[in-house]
Amino acid sequence: MEQAVVDQGPDGTVSSGSERAPWHLWVVGVLSLLWNAMGAFDYSMTHLRGDEYLRQMGMSDDVVAWFAAVPAWATAGWAFGVWGAIAGSLLLLARSRHAVTAFGLSLAGVVVMTIYTLGHAAPDSVNSPGAQAFNWAIKAVALLLLIYALAMRRREVLR
């Protein structure tokens, strides 16, 4: 006969380890996966189809040249940002505590790419108010997903 695993939390509450996840975990997990999938698509297409993809997206020659000049260390930051976020979203949906690590790596990747862009001025079209707002949204979402995963781990929703 199988016995249920019983855990005692730091606040003294007893948990069977099989509690249901809150509804918002599924909403955040699915929405974050969709959001991060857009970033993964953009990253993949930029690297697989390069200039052709960027021009299809309406990028000018100076923007295409700027992207082509991004060094490997900044590209690695972009990769960690994108793929860490995808992994974090999937791990969040799987209720894994490793979602925290994945979202942490994603945020670190965003920071690395931000350091590069701050030190290597992008063309004006990349620095338009709309583009800047979108870049800040990326940073905010990455930070909020890490905070959310930390909260879910602290509440022992993530195993």
Automatic annotation (TrEMBL):
What domain of life is recorded for the organism?
A: Bacteria
Which residues span the membrane? 23-43, 63-93, 100-121, 133-151
Which keywords annotate this record?
A: Membrane, Transmembrane, Transmembrane helix
Give the protein name, as stated in the record.
Sugar transporter
Lineage, broadest ranks: Bacteria, Pseudomonadati, Pseudomonadota, Alphaproteobacteria, Sphingomonadales
